[in-house]
Each structure stands twice: as structure tokens, then as C-alpha cells.
Specification:
mainly alpha; elongated; 2 domains; single chain
């Protein structure tokens, strides 16, 4: 049986654990991909949507645990390719 990943009080403690631990011994099944948004957002758009599409986007964003505008931006990036 694989070990459970401990909880950490700081990013530094988590980084130190990852540097030392053999992660193949730990259960990573609950891990989630985290994406940091580093690029500056210096352009904006105004987009008109039907009420149905707007509500569907907001619902999908909520299901994904994201603000709806970030969800739209990520969806556009995926549609155009991750190299943007």
C-alpha cells in the first residue's frame, strides 16, 4: 500500500519534501494539475453571448472550480493550442 502525502504548513516545507522524497512510494491518485497564470493580461474583449451559452459557461466554470472569465480564457487557449 502506498503512503499518504503529508500536509505542509508552507510552500518551502512542501518543496523540501519533494526534493527528498521518493514520490513513487506515495499515493498521487488525488493529485490535481495546477496551472499558474503568469503572462500579463493587457488586452480585453467584449463578447455578447446568448443567455443559455452564458449560463452554460458559468456552470462549467463552477464545475471546474474556476472563475468564468479564466475558464473562457483557458478554453480559448486549448482551442488555439497551448503554445500561446
Amino acid at each position: 500500500m502506498k503512503k499518504k502525502i503529508p500536509t505542509f504548513k508552507s510552500d518551502r516545507a512542501a518543496a523540501a519534501f519533494v526534493d527528498r522524497a521518493d514520490l513513487s512510494q506515495y499515493d498521487l491518485s488525488g493529485a490535481q494539475l495546477v496551472r499558474f497564470e503568469i503572462k500579463r493580461k493587457d488586452k480585453s474583449i467584449n463578447l455578447r453571448l446568448s443567455e443559455e451559452l452564458y449560463e452554460a459557461v458559468r456552470e462549467r466554470a463552477a464545475d471546474a472550480g474556476l472563475p468564468y472569465q479564466r475558464f473562457i480564457r483557458l478554453t480559448l487557449e486549448r482551442a488555439l493550442g497551448a503554445g500561446i
